[in-house]
Design a protein that fits this description.
The chain contains nine helices and no strands. It is mainly alpha-helical.
């Protein structure tokens, strides 16, 4: 019990600390910027890794954001640690906003003829349907049911197409900002 706390931390306190940091958001953001500044590597590698992490947080592929960011960082020889830090932009409490922005952009650019009321409950049901149909392909190899289920989707195509625009904007902006910050620090 060398490094354990003497006070037992309750589950509710841990959940609240995950949503709202004990030391406040300003200190948390300063801590993350210091961690990024002190990462080993060239400014290009660190900024590239961070921007891939931030970009993957804007995708509608919930649950595999970290894997997407790490894979792209590894593929383009960026910093994988910076990718993980950059992925912290997409947190469970920012996902509804990211989905809403992606949907509005995708609907405006690609599906302006459809007028569907946006509801997070309906989006959630579509994501469950989408992931279940992917599991059908993986475990049963049943592509026919996948195609039939995909015809019923209303929100996910707009969210996906909107995320292409959001991801590219996030990638370029975060790359140049992070590179400038790291060059100033080093």
């Amino acid at each position: 019990m060398l490094f354990n706390s003497r006070k037992k931390i309750h589950l509710i306190s841990r959940i609240f600390a995950y949503i709202w940091p004990r030391s406040g958001w300003n200190r948390f953001i300063r801590y993350l910027t210091l961690r990024i500044k002190r990462l080993p590597g060239s400014p290009h590698k660190i900024a590239l890794g961070f921007s891939f992490g931030a970009m993957s947080a804007m995708t509608p592929f919930f649950g595999i954001h970290f894997l997407i960011g790490m894979f792209l960082s590894w593929l383009f020889r960026g910093s994988i640690a910076a990718s993980i830090i950059g992925n912290l932009i997409g947190n469970p409490w920012t996902f509804p906003f990211i989905v809403l922005v992606n949907y509005k952009i995708g609907k405006t650019l690609f599906f302006s003829h459809q007028d569907i009321l946006f509801n997070l409950e309906n989006v959630y049901k579509e994501f469950i349907l989408f992931f279940n149909s992917i599991l059908l392909i993986i475990f049963e190899g049943n592509f026919n049911n996948f195609i039939e289920l995909m015809k019923d989707l209303e929100f996910i195509p707009a969210i996906f197409y909107g995320s292409i625009f959001t991801c590219s904007i996030t990638l370029f902006i975060s790359y140049f900002i992070m590179k400038k910050i790291i060059i100033k620090y080093q």
